[in-house]
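Cross-posted from the bioinformatics board.
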Amino acid sequence: MAVGGSAAAVAVPLRSRRRWLALALLAGGAVLLAVTPAVGPVPIPIAAVFAILAHGPGNVGSASVCGGASVSASQCRIWAEIVWQARLPAMFLALSAGAILGLSGAALQGVFRNPLADPYLLGLSTGAAMGAALLFVFNVGTSNAALLLPAFAFLGGLIPGIVIFAVGRTARRSAETLVLTGVALGALFSSLLATFLLYNPLGDIQVSFWLLGGMSDATWLRDALLVGVALAVGGTIALLGRELNLLQLGEDVAQSVGVPVQRVTLLLVLLTTVGTAAAVAFTGVIGFVGLVSPHIVRRVVGPDYRKVVPLAGLVGAGFLLLAWDLAQTALPPLVLPVGIPTSFVGAPFFLYLLYRRRSASGAAA
Amino acid sequence: MTGAGGPAVRASDLTVRFRSVTALSRVSISVQPGEFLALAGPNGSGKTTFVRAALGLVVPSEGSVTLHGVPVGEMALDARARTVAWMPQEESVGDNVPLREYVLYGRYPHARRFTPASEQDRLVADRVLDDLGFRDRKDVGVQELSGGERQRLHLGRVLAQQTPILLLDEPTSHLDMGYQLEMLERVRRLAHTSGVAVVAALHDLNLAARYADRIVVLHRGHVVAEGPSSSVLSPALLRDVWGVVADLKRDPQSGLPYLIPRLPTVDPVASEVARGLRIHVVGGGGSAAPILRALAAEGHRVSLGAVALFDTDSEVAVELGIPTATEIPFVPLGEEVRARNRLLMAESEIVVVAPFDVGPGNLGVLDDLLALPETKSVFLVGPSALAPRDFAAGAGTVRLTNLATRSRRVEDDRELLRAIASPPAAHG
């Protein structure tokens, strides 16, 4: 079967190769969704996970729910508790945060005509995390913060948002200028963030969670909130796909065919800031999801932003979920910050993009 | 297709300043529906700024631009985009989208928000692509096109916008000869048959003269010439605006003017000293033609004296647009012509005597030359043997010899230029 597939890919190159890639991504996503609730520091047999899911979130009365005589009733209750109260919320948090980061990356790459743009690389994520961490300085503990957390994250994200809006519009010619500005902002906010976290008067904060991200603080409430933000932000950005397409011809041409460039740009930067802030408030800083996802999508469906934006959301969701699974299983019983696997993939990919650009512009010159 | 009467584009006293630089200065231009106007001018003359101001991409510092009577700045963006389409000098094609999608970009101002392209949009895009010769390549990616093909595709995007006004900034810059003609032919047809008002910035003056109805020449932000293509171009204009020497010819088929430009060819140090002198050339029978061209090329203000109408010299003078004292052909030079010739000699700093043949009809001109004050600088051009030029039974030779004693002798127009450029101390 695999041999037949690759032969077809040679015979009918692009379309067929794209179809196979799309199928592979879909199949991978399905497997990921099925496996994730079973993955974690406490191993739970996958059959038991399915049984627990089929049973629903209600009280687990007997061990039979977990499908076997070898499982005690208390064991089964604990497993059900873990699946319903930790793993599923974490999964949905990873999906919604990944979706937000992925489609934000697509929007930023489109609006700044910059293949290197990403909420993390442009400093948005770190700015948001710094804003959220400011709460801790004021003695508001993680558990009391509730909705203040995304609100403060948004305020923190506004600073890099405004800066990249200004820099992105004036220095659009050089992709590197924008990214370097973002990296510098990121370093600045990182140092402030670390200061706030170490100051940490209540002593209940995991520094690594904020600096490198994680899903351990997931709750159903936060999931509901973040899914809502993902749908609202993603839906709006996806509706601007046509405008994003036209922006690729340059601001002046876009304006000449009737795109309100200034308003669209501002709206897109604002939406990505809102989305990123909400995601960061619940997951900490996670890099490179927004960089990688749109590029994968373009490989499959081409450059049309009307498709790239929503699909970058889907791929981002899958990418972050995969990273979360890897983070939990790479060095058991340790749960790594989720930003480690994303950076492990994303940073080399960033370098690849950077040097491909360099050699392309070198060839053109 | 157009508003009720009035010009499609009207700029009134349009001034655009960028910080300290004035890009356009009190420019007034109007373009009628169905008219093809060419904007000409050297780099940095303000052509692109004018186009951008007409699009509303640049805000006037003073004055205004109206489209069908409405100030550009007051039009809503989508209404503006349904009125005027723009083809920039350089357009990045962005990502590798199929040609069909690229042309559909031009339908943006006609589409309802958040709805896919309509049947009508697809029809328009298909028609445009067929028309531009992309019939079989609608699904090809734009990055697979050559530079010239891309420029045609950009026109396609602009045409799909279906606006009554087109602004084209150097639409032929990447095209080879055949496609240049084809592009401008297409644009002219659009103007003349569909009533579209076209403004095109064009580098190539010959193409401008051939296709545009009217040419406006911009120079340092000012309109320096404006008129029908058949009459606006002149060698003097090319010299003043572009700093090139040009021979103006007429296309024998169409009667339209065309220019053969070249750079002035004398060493720059000399010309620096000697540029812009008033020089009167006495000639006839074609003897002055190379001298006139050489002097005009150097930027001198040249006049020609006492020659017959339709004489080769006077033809060249007309071509170069220089003042001339002319007589009707085949009659002796009359007193009126000699008087004008004397006046031109008196007004000039240098008088140059071309090696014309002397006959009874023009002996009087030599008398006038001999009567010039000693202080007047006179150059006698031609070989030292004067007798062969005399067809007046010795009377010519006498006068030429006398003239030679008070003049500086030079062999030809090249030596003349050098002599004029060198300091008068070398006189001898």
